[in-house]
Amino acid sequence: MSAAEASLSSRTAALPVTGWRWAPAFVLAFVALWPMPGYAEAVLALGALAGLGRVLVVRMRGQGRLLSGPAWALSSALFAAYWAPELLSAPGAVDVGRALGESAADLRYLPFLWLVAAAVATPTGRQRTFDGLAIIVAAWTLDALVQIATGISPLFWSLDHLKWRFSGHGMCAMEDIAAGDRLSGVLGPCNAKLGLVMASMSPFLLIAAARRFGVAGWLLATAAVGLVVLMGGARAGWITFALVAALTGWQLLGVRRLALIALLGVFAAASAAVLSPQLQQRLQRTAAAMSGDEAGVDNALSGRARIWQAAGCMVASSPINGIGVRGFREAFPACDPAPQSAPAWGQGPALHAHQLVLEILSETGVLGLLLWCAGAALAIRAWRYAEPAARAQARPAMLALAVTVFPLNTHLAFYSTFWGGVTLLLAALYVGSLLGTGDGQG
Q1: Which end of the chain is more exposed for a tag (fewer CB within 10 A), N or C?
Q2: Confidence band (pLDDT; 50, 70, 90) for 291?
Q3: d(CA 202, CA 141)
Q4: Rounded distance, CA 216 to CA 256, Å?
Q5: Average pLDDT over the chain, rounded to an integer
Q6: Distance (Å, rounded) from C-alpha 123 to C-alpha 210?
Q7: Are the CB atoms for 411 and 236 separated by under 8 Å?
Q8: pLDDT tier at 5 (50, 70, 90 boundaries)?
């Protein structure tokens, strides 16, 4: 490197990391609008465009940096680990047009990642964003508790009536309303993801409650969110929240007291099942997996064993780059191991693999899995080599991301618009809070 280049590099490294005053508000608006996916997607797209424009302006003017160098590198690498498998899956996909369309549309996630990471790159932005997320989760928890008590979600009721007032129809079409065996909360009966969403976002509330109110705050928040996740009915959400409770509670309480709290939680869950026939049915179906019988296991997994066999067939047919992103629906009939039997999930083919590793392998092949593993390795390496203070400030986002992609669980589709956006949001919050070490005021 020449002396001039070295001088330029040192001056660039010395530039302050400057946040954006509106970036935390963008993140919070995006999350708060999850009950209205169309509006949330519009906020994401507009924010991505604004973020890209801001990056170009700052780079051209040379006035500062939106992120530290390591944050730029890791956020871009995690995007590549998510996006490159999409593009590589297009050749030979069952639906080439859709695979190419998905990869083109998902380019918007790169400036989205930069923007979200920049929102938490400064202490002020990080506090505003994480406190705001904790407040949103707390509000949704209270709303769901009201629904448990009264049968009505005040937040969803308000949104639904506003929708009727301005558009002449409600938030949910009758044909889209899911079965009534799950607590729906603010997301509504046609979007039965409340348990999974609350479990993944719960670290922001639980850690904030513990920091502000100590053990009592953590216990209250854990009990409230735990009841909502339990009544949400998604067993993947139960596993996710159990991980969150264990990882946030063991340092606060110690192993013995945490074990006692866990026993009380199991007792409370059993008591809730007595009062809720729907929850009792789900627990009984879960217990059927202990029978060892293949039919019992498949029933307990709501037909997922059949879906996973089909995913294995797809992996065998296209092991290198998969059948193409979002091509599971089209490929399922040819790989259905029991085409003559009615599926446990209702009419129609399975839409995705319901498991992270199988989704990646079936839709993007071994190449996709290697890229995802590379991204995970980079994220873990960044955590290992970060300073203790940086780890502490990134802990809520790290836990949320880790439990969301925990591979020994069932999952929503990571290449869908909604869950893909949730996952990449958490990845960006992790990168920005861990490596965005600026001390500007945003």
Answers
A1: N
A2: low
A3: 10
A4: 17
A5: 86
A6: 19
A7: yes
A8: very low
What number of residues does the chain have?
Answer: 442
Cβ atoms 393, 40 nearer than 8 A: no
289 falls in which pLDDT band (50, 70, 90)?
low
Sorting pLDDT into bands at 50, 70 and 90, what band is 278?
A: low
pLDDT band at 374 (very low <50, low <70, confident <90, very high): very high
Q: Is it the case that residue 164 has pLDDT exceeding 50?
A: yes
Number of domains in the chain: 1
Residue 191 is encoded by which pair of tokens? Answer: 């979007």
Residues 6+ apart with CB under 8 A from 148: 183, 227, 228, 231
Is residue 181 a contact partner of residue 282, using CB atoms and an 8 Å limit? yes
> Which of 107-121, 142-156, 171-185, 322-336 is least confident?
171-185
Residue appearing with tokens 């424009």 = 53
Show the CA angle centred on residue 80, arms to residues 79 and 85, nearest 5°: 115
Domain assignment of residue 442, yes or no: no
For residue 165, pLDDT over 60 is answered with: yes
Instruction: Spell out the SS3 assignment of 374-424.
Output: HHHHHHHHHHHHCCHHHHHHHHHHHHHHHHHCCCCCCCCCCCCHHHHHHHH
Calculate the alpha carbon distances from 192 to 179, 180, 184, 274, 346 in Å.
9, 9, 6, 22, 15
Q: Domain for residue 4, yes or no?
A: no
In a domain, 10, yes or no: no
Q: Is residue 1 part of a domain?
A: no
Global pTM value: 0.90
pLDDT in tens, 17-36: 454 678 899 999 999 999 99
